[in-house]
Every structure is written in C-alpha cells, then in structure tokens.
Amino acid sequence: MSEEASSQDGNGKVSRVIRVGTRKSQLARIQTDSVAEKLKELYPDIHLEIVAMSTTGDKILDTALSKIGEKSLFTKELENALERNEVDLVVHSLKDLPTTLPPGFTIGAVLKRENPHDAVVLHPSNAGKSLDTLPENSVIGTSSLRRAAQLKKRFPHLDFKDIRGNLNTRLKKLDEKNDFAAIILAAAGLRRMGWESRISQILEPEDCMYAVGQGALAVEVRARDADILEMVSILHDRDTVLRCIAERAFLRRLEGGCSVPVAVHTQVKDSQLYLTGAVYSLDGSNSLKETMQVSIAAGAQSSEKVDEQVQRVGVTANKIPGAVQDEAEKLGIELADLLLSKGAKEILTVARQLNDAR
Could you tell me the keywords of this UniProt record (predicted)? Predict the structure, then answer.
C-alpha cells in the first residue's frame, strides 16, 4: 500500500490525498483533468493532486517515434513515479501503453472511448480540399508508420513526411510554415483540445484504420493497491474494455509496436464484438487484412466472481464477467494467428528492417 497522505478541509474532516501522474503537455493535462473530475464526482471526499512530468517521448523531438525503438516512450517516467510511490495513479492515452506492462502495474480503468479515427487537418491555404483533391506531390505530415503505410496506398499522388511534437507544436508547424499541405492527427485529441473546427476530414476505416487503443484513456495503478484499483474500476466502460482487450491481444500476438504498421477497427453490435486487423509494408503495397467476430452476450447478470489478480493484456476489469473478457482476448489472438498463417510475420519483419535502415 502506498503511504497514506491526507489533508484537512475547513470542517476539520480528514480526506485522503490521491496523487495523479500525467505528462506535461496540454492535451495530457486536459485528459487527466477529465478523469480527475469524474473521480471527484464519484468520491467527493478525496482530494486529488495532479503531478505533471516530462517523458522521454516529450524530450526527443527530432527523431521519428518509430526510430527511437523504445516501447514505453511516453510512460516510463510516469511508471517510475508510480513505483516510487510518488503518485497513486497515472492517466495515459491507452495507445501509448505497451501490451505487456512492467511487473507490479495494471490498467485499472479504460474509459469510454472518444472517436478513435484519424483526422485530416489542412493548411489554411487548402481549405475546402480533401486528401483526394490535394495537388500531386502535396506533402502530408504524420509521425505514424501505420498512417503513412495505409495512406500511401490509398492516395498515391501524395508525399508523406515525418512531423513530430505534441498537438500544439504540430499544428503550429502546419500553420506557420508552408512545409505541409496537411497533417494527420487523432480525432480524439483534437476534440479533447476543443479544436474540432480544424478537422476537415475524418478518415473512415476503408481509408485508414486506427491504432490499437486509439481514442481511449487508461488509468494505470499499482496492481497491489486493492483500494485504488477498486476506486478507479468504476470508470471502466464495458464495450471499450472489450474492444481494447481484443485489439491489444491482436497486437501483442503479432509482436507489433510503434516501429511496425499495424492497424485495427473494432465495433460492438448486437452482442457481437467485431475485430478487423491489418498489417502493412512501409509503403502500403503489401498488406494483409481480415475480420473476425465473437459473441459477448455473457449476461451482465452473471454472478461469476472475477479473479482480481487476472490481467488480460495489462487490463484488470473485475466488474466485467471474466468469460467475456476471455472471449475478447481470444478473438485478438485468433485474428493475429490467422494473419500470421498468411505471412504477416514476413511483412512486419521487412517493415521493421527497412524502418531501422532509414
């Protein structure tokens, strides 16, 4: 158990202080504040203290993420603080969290997903255009191999270049210089920042499938902190949890990460969980894509006691029937196995080698 911190309010009432770790960027702060507000509504007696810190990914801004080769770029420093009891929980974008967490940590909550799709943000001089109608050889900025691989194939007349930095930095680079005709960003981040008006096009799955966990927020805690785990578990959104367990299991089985182009699309419809997964060569010319589904109808009325020690791809969700979580995880593994049987490993190995050689 972490050291208990407490504060007294004006009435002499003692309330527990919960320290919440976050990255320093404006988007990270907005995301963390939104989680803190939800917890405050549910537990009015707790006092939340936000602790912001910079991560490796925030500091290395001149190198493409896929070239840095570190899996926990945006999470390591936060996890170190969690380990040292300097914070009690950490808020992340789920897509930043590796599919295997360090021992002693777990994802105690996955919140209701924002729009997970990617969005096109145009340079002001291209207002009214779309990726289809941009002139030949227009330069599109994206730091993601996944986005570039899919979009190169779909829009061969465009040129894709790396762009790094947080949301504010990337928008500034787009607007203040003429280096890029447009940039591709996650719609979720733009919406959370209140910049929805900058979205000129949402990319549908047939144009560009999204990253594993994209659009979902995750709360990471120490696995042994039963009280904190219980407190945050109320934030879990069932459909988001099941979709993201399937997506993360798919990625883990493929041994994918930032340095390979892997994309997914999931939906829950009529008690069925659908998972589409794909792998791509760097230029998008070679790809494999399949869809599978599974029933997740195991009733919410299920009285089964879920083993709180069981993590599925890093997620502990003891309020959701274990059998349903198992089905979601199995779906991800089976879809990955199907792609692997068709040659996914070869595509990803070549992509990794080419990326390393760039």
Answer: Acetylation, Cytoplasm, Phosphoprotein, Porphyrin biosynthesis, Transferase
Beta strands in 78-154 (DSSP E): 89-93, 105-110, 118-122, 139-141
Angle, in degrees to the nearest 10, between helices 167-176 and 26-42: 140
Scored b (16 or more CB within 10 A) or e, 315-327 reads: bbbbebbbebbeb
- CATH fold group of domain 17-115+213-357: Double Stranded RNA Binding Domain (3.30.160)
What pLDDT shows up at residue 72?
52
Given a contact cutoff of 8 angstroms between Cβ atoms, the answer to whether 121 and 200 are in contact is: yes
In the chain, list all ranges with CATH 3.40.190.10.
118-202
Q: Are 210 and 265 in contact (CB under 8 A)?
A: yes
What stretches of the chain adopt beta strand conformation (E)?
6-8, 14-23, 47-53, 89-93, 105-110, 118-122, 139-141, 159-161, 182-186, 201-202, 217-222, 262-269, 272-280, 287-295
List of E strands, 250-358: 262-269, 272-280, 287-295
Structure tokens at 146: 């996944």
Collapse the DSSP code of 105 into the 3-class scheme (helix H, G, I; strand E, B; otherwise coil) and give the result. strand
Quote the CA–CA distance of 12 and 33 in Å, as a whole number: 26
Which entry of 88, 96, 118, 237 is annotated as an active-site residue? 96
**Amino acid in the structure at residue 179:** D
pLDDT tens string 86-136: 999 999 999 989 999 999 999 999 999 999 999 999 999 999 999 999 999
Active site residue 356: no
